[in-house]
Amino acid sequence: MNPGEKLKEIRNRLGLSTREVAVRSQKIANQEGNSEFLISSPWLTQIENEKESQPSIHKIFTMASIYGVTCDYIFSLYAVDVRKTAIYHAEMPVAKTHLVEFPVQEDAKSIGLPTDFDVNQTGLLSRTIETWGRVPLGLIRTLDLRHHLYGYVGLKDYTLYPIINPGSFVSIDPERNKPRMRIFRSEYDRPVHFVDLRKENKCACGWCEIADSKLLLIAHPLSGCATRIFAFPGEAEIIGQVTGVAMRIAAAPV
């Protein structure tokens, strides 16, 4: 169905006539003090029957209020997915530091974790998503699961602290799974890899070097962790390079 037909279906399902919608819209227009919120019966008939007709943002608000749906839902009928605003904003960053004020979706206020999810251990997030009762936050809506993997750095994993804090979420590019052997200008230029430690049955984020069939998982000098050595590829597998990180840099309030 086209958008108008879908809106008509919603109205009919509620048992409302176009006249009744018009009467209800008058209350909204009066309370908002703006006639743009008003919906007339002929206008609604036109919207429902003419494919090229599109409602204004004020009338979308009114229909959403009367029909009991979100404005986002009506936008989506007209092929406007407002959730993509966060994605486009991230792809076209501006120079100045600023607050990003995208609204939090109702289903994004809590997080559901699988019952066997261990917050202390580093692991691949995207491998456990299918077992979750609820998807965490609104984040999953923007995850590119076809091209990237996502990992969680365990609360006890200090391998790259203070560059990557325990409890961080990381995005992983599986195409970049081979360490580059060159001199890096600083520790921030050095690629970070997400590694499946088969021998220890867990994962870790760290700097990697491969020499003589051995994988060296190198820790940050300030982390207090030692460099670990694994037979490669038997005991360890490089999942990919970490390309993004979301982490807390201050302790959560008690």
Give your account of this protein's structure.
There is one protein chain. The protein has 254 residues and is of the alpha+beta class. It folds into 2 domains: 3-77, Orthogonal Bundle (434 Repressor (Amino-terminal Domain)), CATH 1.10.260; 110-246, Umud Fragment, subunit A (Ribbon), CATH 2.10.109.10. It contains 6 helices and 8 strands. It has helices spanning 3-13, 18-32, 41-49, 57-67, 71-77, 84-91; strands spanning 123-124, 149-152, 169-173, 193-197, 202-211, 214-218, 228-231, 236-246. An 8-stranded antiparallel beta sheet has the order 1-2-3-8-4-5-6-7, with no helix packed on it. Strand 4 (193-197) and strand 5 (202-211) form a beta hairpin. It is elongated, with a radius of gyration of 26 Å. It starts with a helix and ends in an 8-residue tail after the last strand.
Over all CA atoms, what is the radius of gyration? Answer: 26 Å
- Shape field: elongated
What's the number of domains? Answer: 2
Largest sheet: 8 strands, antiparallel
Examine the secondary-structure arrangement and name the CATH architecture of the largest domain. Ribbon
Uncertain spans: 106-111, 127-138
**What is the name of the CATH class of the largest domain?**
Mainly Beta
Strand content: 15-25%
Could you give me the name of the CATH homologous superfamily of the largest domain?
A: Umud Fragment, subunit A
The helix fraction, in percent, is 10-25%
Q: Quickly give the structural class.
A: alpha+beta
**Widest sheet: strand order?**
1-2-3-8-4-5-6-7
- pLDDT averaged over residues: 81
List SSEs in N-to-C order: HHHHHHEEEEEEEE
Amino-to-carboxy terminus distance = 51 Å
Give a count of the beta strands, DSSP E runs of length 2 or more. 8
CATH fold type of the largest domain: Umud Fragment, subunit A
Number of helices: 6
